[in-house]
Amino acid sequence: MASVRSLSSVVLVGGLVCTVVGCGGDSGASVSGPGTAASPPTPSSSFSSFAESWEEPASYVYTLTSSEGERSLIGRFRVTVRDGKVADVVGLDESGRGAVQRAPEEVPTIGGLLDQLTRAHAEGADTAEAAYAPDGHPVRITLDPEKDAVDDEQSYVISDYEPERDPARDPASEPVGEQP
C-alpha cells in the first residue's frame, strides 16, 4: 500500500511539474530572439511597448487560436473585421466551429483582445502579458486573473494578420498606369 501512495505522489508531482513548466510541444510564436520561418520575430513581451503605438485598422483579417481555461471561446478561427467590427468568423477546427455556432459574437477584434489585456492589467491580474510583431500588433496575449484559481487562464495566438489597404492612405494600393 505504501508503494501505491509513493507512486501516486510521484505521478502527482510529475503532473504538476509538467503543468508549471510545460511538457513538450511548441506553444506558438517566439517571445524574443531572432525569428525563423516557424516563429516570426516578436521583439517585445512587455505589457504596452508596442500596443500603444499600434493603430488598429478599420478592416483586416486574422487567425485567432484561443485556448486555456473553462470558457466557450476555445478553438481556431479566421476572423474578418470590417469598419472596426467582426463581420465574419469561420471556425477552423471542431472546437472553433462549435463556438461559432453557439456564440459568434464572442469572437473579438484584435482591439477587443487588447482591451481585455488592458482591463486585466488594471485589475491586477496575476498574468497580463503580450508579445508583439515588429509592426506593433499583438501575436500572443496571455491572461490569468488569479494565480491560484483553476481554469481562469486565457491564451490567444494571433497569426496570419493582414490589414486591408486603404487607397486614400496608401498610394501603393492605387491602380498602376492611371494618371490624373
Looking at how many chains there are and whether they match, the oligomeric state comes to: single chain
Give the number of helices.
3
Radius of gyration: 20 Å
**Total strand segments:** 6
Mean pLDDT: 74
Low-confidence stretches: 1-50, 173-180
| Major β-sheet profile | 6 strands, antiparallel
Order of helices and strands: HEEEHHEEE
Q: Strand fraction band?
A: 25-35%
What is the straight-line distance between the termini? Answer: 89 Å
In one word, what is the shape?
Answer: globular
Structural class label: alpha+beta
Helix content: 10-25%
* Neighbour order of strands in the largest sheet: 3-2-1-6-5-4
Main traits of this protein?
180 residues; alpha+beta; 6-stranded antiparallel beta sheet; 6 strands; globular; disordered N terminus; disordered C terminus
Itemize the secondary structure elements and their pairings.
Elements: H1 2-21, E1 60-67, E2 75-82, E3 85-91, H2 94-102, H3 110-122, E4 127-132, E5 138-144, E6 154-163
Antiparallel strand pairs: 1-2, 1-6, 2-3, 4-5, 5-6
Note down, in words, how this protein is organized:
The protein has helices at residues 2-21, 94-102, 110-122; strands at 60-67, 75-82, 85-91, 127-132, 138-144, 154-163. Residues 1-50 and 173-180 have low confidence and may be disordered. It has three helices and six strands, in the order αβββααβββ. The chain has 180 residues and is an alpha+beta fold. The N and C termini lie far apart (89 Å). It is globular. The protein has a six-stranded antiparallel sheet with strand order 3-2-1-6-5-4.
